[in-house]
Design a protein that fits this description.
The structure is a homodimer. With about 400 residues, the first copy, chain A, is of the alpha/beta class. The first copy, chain A, is about 35% helix and about 15% strand. A 9-stranded mixed β-sheet of chain A has the order 3-2-4-7-1-8-11-10-9, sandwiched between helices.
């Protein structure tokens, strides 16, 4: 298998983008990525597109050929494939794209992700998101994602002594980071008091513990590492990719505080990379709810199981901490257009590793990890990127 | 890249399967494929699952981990990825699975496809299928697939003199083949008169020109060709795979009688295989409507453009013809559970190439082609399978 590099990234602003359609969004992100990679669209060999539920959000399935069409590339007739794995759709699309380049099958591939969520009501969007949970054992009985993560949070508090203040610190930190990101959905600081006093959504999670419903798209251009310098000065190597699954329903798991899909994917990625968690300089993790960031940093091995809350409280994951987490603002503040989220993480890491992250730059960042999960952890994909020597 | 083989196939009966859920269907097909391959589920490295719109048909997205879960393999945590490309979802899932084995990444992969379409009304199902067309330029204005294919049929008749009798012959032939297939949705012969006199759906297409709305699932087990004899006596080599795209909306195409995605995918597959259309002994093609089989055999190169109707009338594509087409009964009679269709085609070809197709066996079949399209031809995937020497 060949070594693979990201040579270009692009994204739209995440947020409630009422003046742009799904096709406008992904075309914008894709064009930005191509320009960033110094590549003409006509040179692209294939595309992978992550989207969770375009069929329900905007009444449009079959969006992979639509992406090629609206990028003005219909006459090339190149293969284009949509990946759906709930909120991990984007990350898995990136993985598939990397695999086809690594295998030697293609030389230049675009991985994109898109979701247009605000064309339907918030209630309908919540119901659509719930299709990522087990419809027969969870959704049918009225369970939605805030409820599922509230169960996890409650159990984590009971088992490890994690506190509401520690959860709140995740939101406070990610909003602080989001202020520094021009593409973030929310660019305002919040305080722990605001998080703790916000309207309850599903106790112990309040409104400010939850990531928003966002529109947005992101894209990345991938080629063999050996060819990357032909296009750009600062290619970023894709060092490793790991993917895992778990039961769809929470009640089937031995321990709902541990995401086994994350552990499996991370183990595969760290083994492929030949490094350990301590060798990672920063990470984008899947903070769809504040508790999700806590379990993620535990399951990825950045801290011991049960110590994620304390580590967060102690500032370990802040921009100036030992391992900055969600420098982009994360799903919480950057926004969470579900199918785009995994690629949005890659955009942030590439900008950080190139030293182009502006006010949120992690100084000397050489190696970074992206962690993207679907649903309440039934699917997970982990990527490790680094500055090539 | 390594050579790849199919070592096991399985499918449910296609039809209105009201006593089985989506998860029952794919579990049944997957178990049959594993048993057929003499493989334990615990040895599988990864899964790819094709499904067009489980989110709208049964309110369940995120079905790839669900497949692993309900196959009893959640504890393996293996990667599982859903592919969506409308009615080509199954064929592209098969392609992705083959690619990961060819690349050396995995040694044993299951490709599956599933759709449970009859839990909603026929009207709702038609509306959901229409999400595979261009929502903004076709679906929004009330266009559905019978209408789109009626435009193609009308133009084909005008341009090439194709007749209603020739279209009817496609349905008559495929129903005759379906009678010989225990898994077919329809197992009754029909006459040309019945096709011509059937209720009009979208002129010139009547009810019997249209494939049905079906439930069903199919699966295939894939491994490197060099290892295949460890599992089974008669592995089938995957000789080639090609994938292509085209504009989503019909009005953007220079010629609606030609599916450029098919031509692109076929060209790629024939080049990879190093053979010509005349070297193929039989084919399963995407006959979602009778006209679609006519354009398919033209675009695949089995007959000249414009001569598909005449060739069909002359018996070239019958079970005892020069190149038998849709020996399984095709989408028309075997049924069309959209996400499963592409894998269902592979099941038929593997049974034919093993000499296990019973009364519909094509004698001496050594090489066969599967052609699976999405929507009105915006995506297409072509596979060529053969008996290894």
């Amino acid at each position: 298998m060949r070594e693979v590099a990201v040579i270009g990234v692009g994204m739209t602003k995440f947020g409630e983008v009422w003046n742009k359609s799904l096709r406008d969004l992904f075309t914008e992100a894709g064009m930005k990525a191509l320009i960033n990679a110094n590549v003409s669209g006509s040179k692209i060999n294939a595309m992978y597109v992550g989207s969770m539920s375009a069929g329900r959000f905007v009444g449009q399935e079959h969006i992979a050929p639509l992406v090629v069409d609206y990028a003005g590339l219909a006459e090339t007739h190149i293969p284009a494939t949509r990946i759906e794995s709930a909120c991990a759709s984007g990350g898995i699309a990136f993985r598939e794209a990397c695999m086809t380049v690594a295998s030697g099958m293609y030389d230049l591939v675009v991985a994109g992700g898109v979701e247009k969520m605000t064309d339907i009501s918030g209630g309908e969007a919540t119901e659509t998101l719930a299709t990522a949970a087990d419809q027969e054992w969870e959704g049918f009985f009225g369970m939605t994602f805030p409820g599922l993560y509230a169960l996890i949070a409650t159990r984590h508090m009971h088992k490890y002594g994690t506190t509401p203040d520690q959860l709140a610190e995740v939101a406070v930190k990610n909003h602080a980071n989001g202020c520094l990101n021009p593409n973030a959905h929310f660019r305002r600081k919040i305080t722990a008091e605001q998080v703790l006093e916000a309207t309850r959504v599903a106790d112990p999670l309040g409104l400010l513990d939850c990531s928003p419903i966002s529109d947005g798209a992101a894209a990345a251009v991938i080629c063999p590492l050996k060819d990357a310098h032909k296009f750009v000065e600062k290619p970023i190597r894709v060092l490793a990719s790991g993917q895992g699954t778990d039961t769809l329903a929470l009640h089937e798991r031995a321990d709902i505080c541990t995401m086994e899909a994350t552990r499996y994917a991370a183990k595969a990625a760290f083994a492929q990379a030949g490094i350990k968690p301590k060798d990672v300089d920063l990470a984008e993790v899947h903070d769809c709810f504040t508790i999700a960031e806590i379990t993620a940093i535990e399951d990825l091995g950045f801290v011991e199981k049960g110590k994620g809350g304390k580590a967060t409280e102690d500032g370990m994951t802040r921009l100036d901490g030992e391992i900055p987490i969600n420098t982009s603002g994360g799903l919480k503040a950057k926004g969470h257009p579900v199918g785009a989220t995994g690629i949005g993480q890659v955009v942030e890491l590439v900008e950080q590793l190139r030293g182009e992250a502006g006010k949120r730059q992690v100084s000397g960042a050489k190696r970074a990890l992206a962690h993207n999960i679907g649903g309440s952890g039934a699917s997970c994909v982990v990527h490790i990127l680094e500055v090539p020597e």
